[in-house]
Structure formats: structure tokens, C-alpha cells
Specification:
Blueprint (H helix, E strand, L loop, with lengths): L1 H23 L3 H13 L11 H19 L2 H6 L1 H26 L4 H12 L7 H5 L5 H29 L5 H30 L5 H21 L4 H19 L2 H28 L1 H10 L4 H49 L4 H11 L10 H23 L4 H9 L5 H7 L10 H30 L6 H19 L12 H28 L4 H20 L6
């Protein structure tokens, strides 16, 4: 009965924080962290210790899977340079710098354990990005931050394992690189296989509720085998989600996808809230361990705040040249645009394309192109031009860079990873866990609490409304042209057969429009939000027609 009461109170706290937080101008996760900290110090509440595997293996895979399903694959591809750098290179650099800092300020832990703690506090938290989404930042900034948080946990956990091994005098650079490459490669293969198999199986299931239940197993079907093989279960869950999100509109019915979306939103709300509330509830137990070890609470606070400041400075030093590099790439794309458009004009047929290629010279210039070659080449050129337009329409300047730096928050993953430090052999373990908690909690409260103010202060460039209107017009034209490919005439007779024929024609028209939208999505021709809204409208129309007995009533 007590456990049931606790579950009810937790659900009520999550619902209350989600409802009241926005009204108070505070993100719900911050409310839950503060609430958890306050409750943990009540005299009748016992110290709470959560097994870190519950967070890393039980909570994170479904959360990362759900986030990756909803993340546009095209934006992930376009921003992969930034995402890869932030989630791998920055984590490694931050871990080493923080490791040197910890080895300097904490007596007796050494460089290996310092880097281990640095790896724990280096990655941004995927759950913490929920705060970013509610702050009104640009979709491109959100895509970079969300992509970073989807992948950097894997690099941090691999680095953590390597640093712990180094403390036992078995570290080698080649071993680290090999371990990381193996961890990612195996996870990508497993995630891809599970994502494709997931869609094949669920496409044959007609019941939307059963379909959603099957979707709940997908992140674990990807992560558990990956972990058993020594790879990253989190990366496997992310890849499975990306595959599912990209292919689902072509494979699954609107009813199945609507059921998925509604139920996964509930799962996200509960799991995210549980993570932040649990994080706060653990503080009293962590402080008690530190006091029992006579490690000192105030020194841990000072070291934690110093480490947080250092993470922000290192992140700023990395993001500045990254943005400069992205700007140079955008300018190069603009200079290449006339040449690419000229190449597009020469792709009218295989003969003209072969002639144009021969005139330009270079590798493969004398090869006879086939119609399939021309089609693939034309697709590449369309996507390249769409990428150029994307980078031009959403440039990343110092204002957006400031948000990228300040929005890199740590969270519950840092606390959970700290608790995986071995009890035997870790010097001042309770102190290290407390420092990790202070970094995570201070990051959420300071950076998360002030993110809205920072956005208002730096005033990122507003969205070009004229470009938005032009894009909407192009989208409406695409939908109109796709619909006209399916003839639609009013039935001459009011018979069941005539109504069924009319109903089928309308559904065929919607399917033609959906295919056109998905082709445009794959080419990157429109913004992700605009396409998502259009696809949702088509889904609603299809569901309405399928449920309506008389399609012309």
C-alpha cells in the first residue's frame, strides 16, 4: 500500500509541475528537481538510492528512442558535422581538461580518476533538452542540441570505462579508439536492423493499440543486445528511432502513428518527470555518504561550481570556431550554387548528361550514363541545393552560438553515471558522486532557470516571415499538383458502390499528396515543422474519411 501511495504521489507531482511550471514561468523539470531536493531533507523521508542501471538501461533507451523518432532525419544529416563534433570531440576535450582540474583540486585521486569524473560531467543531458524546446529558440539550434544529447552519452560512457581501466594501469590510446569504434559500429548495425524489423512487423499488425505496445519494446530490443555485445545500447536505441521516424509515414497507417505519438508523449512526460524528481530525492543520501566519509560538503560545492564554470568556458571555446567553420561551409555552398544549377539544366536525358560530364572532364568523364545514373545524380543535386538554402535561411551567428553554449545542460545522466563508479578502488567515491550531483543540479537550476532570459538578452535573428510565406505557397502548390494526379469526380448515382469509389479516390489523392510530401522531405525542400504540420493534416483527413460512412455527406 505504501508503494502504491508513493507512485500516486509521484504521478501527481509530475502532473502538477507540468501544469503549474509554465504558469509560474519556470520549466517543469526545474520545479521537480527543487521539489525532490526539498522532500529528500524531510525527517520522515529515508535516504533514497537508485541503482544507476535503472536510469542508464531502463529509462534512457525509451527516452532517447522517442526523441530520435520525432527528430527530422534530414536535419540530423545536415547538422551531423556539428552534432558529431559536440558529442564526441568536445566530450573528449572536456573530459581531459576537467580531469586535470579535478586531479589538481581533489587530493589523491590522480589523473585517471579525474578524467573519469570529467567524462561523467562532460555530456549534456538528453532529458535536459526538454527545457530548451520550451524556450523559443530556433529549430536549427534545437536540432543541434538534441542531436548532440542523443549521441554524447555513448562517448562519455566509453571514455568513463576507459578511464576506470586506466586507473588499473591498463590504458592505451589504441585500445580506447578501438573500443569506441567497436561500441558505435555494433550499435549502429543493431539499431538499423531493429528499426527496419520493427517497421516490417508492425506494418502487418492491424490493431493500433497492439502496434503501440510493440513500439514500447523497440528501444530495449535494440539496447539490450548491444550492451550484451559490449556496444552502446543508447546509440542502438537512437539509430532504431531514427530509422523508425524516417520510414514510419511510408509504412504505418495514420491511426498507428497517431496512437504511437499520443502514448509516447505520455511515456516521455512520466519518465522525464521521474528522472528529475528522483535526481532531487537522491541528494540527502549523497550528502549523508559524504558526511560519513568526512569528505566535507562545502569543498564539494566549490569544486562542483568550479567544474560547471569550466565546462561552460570549454564549450564556448569549442563552439566559437565550430560556428565559424559552419559559416564558411555555407558561403562555399552559395558560391557553388550557380555551377550546381547549371549541372541540373544539363540532366534532361542520359545523352545530354554524358555530354555535359565529358565537357567538364575529371574522373568518370568518359563513362556513358544510364537513366538510373541521371536520376541518382539529379537527386543529389536537388538535395545539395536544398542544403544550401537551409544553411542560408538559418545562419548561426554569435547570438545563436551563445544559446548553444548556455543550453548545454547536465542532468540526471551525470548523477547516474557517477553512481556507476566502483565502490572498491575509487578514491573518495562519495565526494566524487556529490560533485557530479552539484554540477548537474547547478547546471539545471542556473542555466535552465536563466535560459529564457538569455534568449531574450541575445535576441537571435527572427524568422523571415516573407520566406515562410513563400515556402507555404510552394508547399500548397506541391499538394495541389499531387492531388490533381488523381481524378476526383462526384458520383452520378447515390449507390453504395459509387460512394465507395468516391471514398477510394479521395484516399488515393491523400496518398499521392503524402508521397509527394515525403519525397520533398527526403530532398530537404521544406522546413521540418511545415512538413510535419502538412503530414498531420493529411493524416487527420484520412482518418476522418475512413471513419465516415458517407464520404460525400
Amino acid at each position: 500500500m505504501e508503494i502504491l501511495l508513493v507512485i500516486v504521489l509521484v504521478l501527481l507531482a509530475i502532473a502538477g509541475a507540468t501544469t503549474l511550471g509554465p504558469k509560474l514561468g519556470v520549466a517543469a523539470p526545474l520545479v521537480l528537481v527543487v521539489l525532490g531536493i526539498g522532500v529528500s531533507f524531510l525527517p520522515f523521508v529515508p535516504p533514497l538510492t537508485i541503482e544507476p542501471e535503472w536510469i542508464i538501461a531502463g529509462v534512457l533507451p525509451p527516452l532517447l528512442y522517442s526523441a530520435s523518432v520525432s527528430m527530422p532525419a534530414m536535419e540530423f544529416r545536415r547538422e551531423f558535422t556539428a552534432i558529431g563534433g559536440l558529442s564526441v570531440l568536445l566530450v573528449i576535450v572536456s573530459s581531459v581538461i576537467l580531469g586535470l582540474f579535478f586531479a589538481w583540486v581533489i587530493p589523491g585521486i590522480g589523473i585517471a580518476w579525474g578524467i573519469a569524473l570529467g567524462a561523467i560531467v562532460s555530456p549534456t543531458d538528453a532529458v535536459a533538452t526538454s527545457i530548451v524546446k520550451r524556450s523559443g529558440v530556433s529549430p536549427r539550434v534545437v536540432a543541434i542540441l538534441e542531436g548532440e544529447s542523443l549521441l554524447n552519452d555513448a562517448s562519455a560512457l566509453v571514455l568513463l570505462r576507459t578511464a576506470i581501466a586506466a586507473a588499473a594501469a591498463s590504458f592505451s590510446l589504441g585500445g580506447f579508439i578501438g573500443s569506441f569504434a567497436y561500441s558505435v559500429a555494433v550499435a549502429v548495425v543493431l539499431g538499423w536492423a531493429v528499426g527496419r524489423l520493427n517497421l516490417i512487423v508492425r506494418a502487418k499488425v492491424t490493431d493500433a493499440t497492439v502496434n503501440t505496445v510493440l513500439s514500447f519494446t523497440v528501444p530495449f530490443l535494440a539496447s539490450i543486445p548491444a550492451e550484451a555485445l559490449g556496444a552502446s545500447g543508447l546509440v542502438a536505441a537512437v539509430v532504431a528511432g531514427l530509422i523508425t521516424g524516417r520510414r514510419a509515414p511510408r509504412v504505418l497507417s495514420p491511426q498507428h502513428r497517431l496512437s504511437d505519438a499520443q502514448n509516447w508523449r505520455t511515456v516521455e512526460l512520466v519518465l522525464e518527470g521521474l528522472v528529475f524528481l528522483t535526481m532531487g530525492l537522491e541528494l540527502f543520501g549523497i550528502v549523508t555518504d559524504v558526511q560519513n566519509d568526512h569528505a566535507g560538503f562545502l569543498p564539494a560545492v566549490l569544486v562542483g561550481l568550479g567544474a560547471l564554470l569550466l565546462t561552460v568556458l570549454v564549450r564556448a571555446a569549442y563552439v566559437a570556431p565550430l560556428l565559424a567553420s559552419l559559416s564558411r561551409r555555407a558561403r562555399r555552398g552559395e558560391k557553388m550554387r550557380p555551377r550546381i544549377e547549371s549541372m541540373q539544366g544539363s540532366l534532361t536525358d542520359p545523352e545530354s548528361a554524358t555530354t555535359a560530364l565529358a565537357k567538364r572532364g575529371g574522373p568518370g568523364a568518359n563513362r556513358q550514363l544510364t537513366a538510373a545514373d541521371v536520376g541518382r545524380f539529379a537527386t543529389r543535386l536537388r538535395r545539395t541545393i536544398a542544403d544550401i538554402d537551409y544553411f542560408k535561411a538559418a545562419p548561426l551567428g554569435w547570438r545563436e552560438g551563445s544559446i548553444v553554449v548556455w543550453a548545454g545542460m547536465r542532468g540526471a545522466v551525470t548523477v547516474a553515471a557517477a553512481q556507476t563508479l566502483p565502490h572498491d578502488g575509487t578514491p573518495s567515491r562519495s565526494l566524487l558522486v556529490l560533485i557530479a550531483f552539484i554540477v548537474a543540479a547547478a547546471s539545471l537550476l542556473i542555466q535552465g532557470g536563466s535560459l529564457g532570459w538569455v534568449v531574450r538578452l541575445v535576441k537571435p535573428a527572427p524568422v523571415d516571415e516573407e520566406l515562410e510565406r513563400e515556402e507555404e505557397i510552394r508547399l500548397m502548390t506541391l499538394l495541389r499538383d499531387a492531388a490533381e494526379t488523381v481524378p476526383l469526380t462526384a458520383p452520378l448515382e447515390r449507390t453504395p458502390e459509387a460512394f465507395l469509389a468516391q471514398k477510394k479516390a479521395r484516399l488515393d489523392r491523400i496518398q499521392a499528396q503524402r508521397s509527394a510530401l515525403l519525397d520533398a522531405r527526403d530532398d530537404g525542400a521544406f522546413s521540418a515543422d511545415l512538413l510535419l504540420n502538412a503530414l498531420n493534416n493529411l493524416d487527420a483527413d484520412q482518418i476522418s474519411i475512413e471513419l465516415k460512412g458517407d464520404p460525400v455527406a
